[in-house]
Design a protein that fits this description.
Distance between the termini: 55 Å
Oligomer: single chain
Largest sheet: 9 strands, mixed
Radius of gyration: 21 Å
Number of helices: 7
CATH superfamily of one domain: Class I glutamine amidotransferase (GATase) domain
Structural class: alpha/beta
CATH architecture of one domain: 3-Layer(aba) Sandwich
Number of strands: 11
């Protein structure tokens, strides 16, 4: 948390489709990252953006040290994200930083690392209706939402979804073609938490939906670090008590004879 008690948020976007698809630029002026920064703007948040083509992908040690919650949108360039940067982000999450993985970030390197499985799923891109159902209304991430809401056009993601066994679903989706999907779930990794949220295909205006933005905003506030590790990660501590001397001459293979 910053000294002014605001939550420091970094919105990361690979920023690839914006350069090649005019429809994306029309729907999201300023890119997905810029649009989200504008929609999420709030007095309690300090928001910055970062993109793939910046030095160190915009995720330097300094940036991450001053990030409480990282939003991640990627799709076409997962393979271009340097492993060293993924290592850095993973360590920061283990130390307490929060992560919101949006839409196709389910195949990003950082999501797969934290998830521990492939993240694969079924998909179909025909612009079908999606109905999102809140399945855990007590969770802060869905505070203020109705029991369900709809997006008129979205890319379908369907089960089976290869996610960790300890994932805790908060939102599930039904699609016009009949599929269902665990569209919003949380994971705890080290001292940090992650929230995956499915909506956000680049050529559909899902981030224009007020309920989608509310979910993301709620997630940021829930993910803010409750604790940030700042001690040596692995060390040999001094004993707190006096350890009495032992005679190990009769110890063999862990068995005292």
């Amino acid at each position: 948390m910053s000294k002014d008690n605001k939550i420091n948020v970094t919105i990361w976007n690979e920023n690839v489709h914006e350069k090649t698809n005019s429809a994306v630029c029309e729907i999201y002026p300023g890119g997905l990252h810029g649009f989200l920064a504008e929609k999420l703007n709030s007095p309690d948040l300090n928001i910055r953006t970062a993109t793939l083509d910046e030095p160190e992908h915009g995720l330097t040690e300094e940036v991450l040290n001053n990030t409480d919650v990282l939003l991640w949108w990627g799709h076409a360039a997962h393979h271009k994200v340097e492993d060293a940067i993924v290592d850095r982000v993973q360590q920061k999450i283990w130390d307490g930083m929060g992560l919101v993985a949006l839409h196709s970030a389910h195949m990003s390197k950082i999501f797969c690392r934290l998830n521990g499985t492939s993240g694969k799923l079924h998909w179909r891109e025909v612009g079908e209706r999606e109905r999102l159902w809140v399945v855990d209304p007590s969770h802060p991430i869905v505070a203020g939402l109705p029991e369900h809401f709809e997006l008129p056009y979205e890319e379908m993601y369907g089960e089976p979804f290869m996610i960790a066994a300890d994932a805790k679903p908060i939102i599930i989706s039904w699609f016009e073609g009949g599929e269902v999907f665990r569209s919003g779930f949380t994971l705890q990794r080290g001292y940090g938490r992650m929230f995956y949220f499915r909506p956000g295909h680049e050529t559909f205006p899902s981030f224009h939906n007020a309920n989608v933005i509310k979910v993301i905003g709620n997630a940021i506030r829930w993910l803010k670090p409750a604790y940030r590790a700042d001690y040596p990660k692995t060390h040999t501590p001094d004993s707190l008590e006096v350890i009495s001397p032992k005679d190990f001459k009769h110890v063999k293979a862990g068995i005292i004879r």
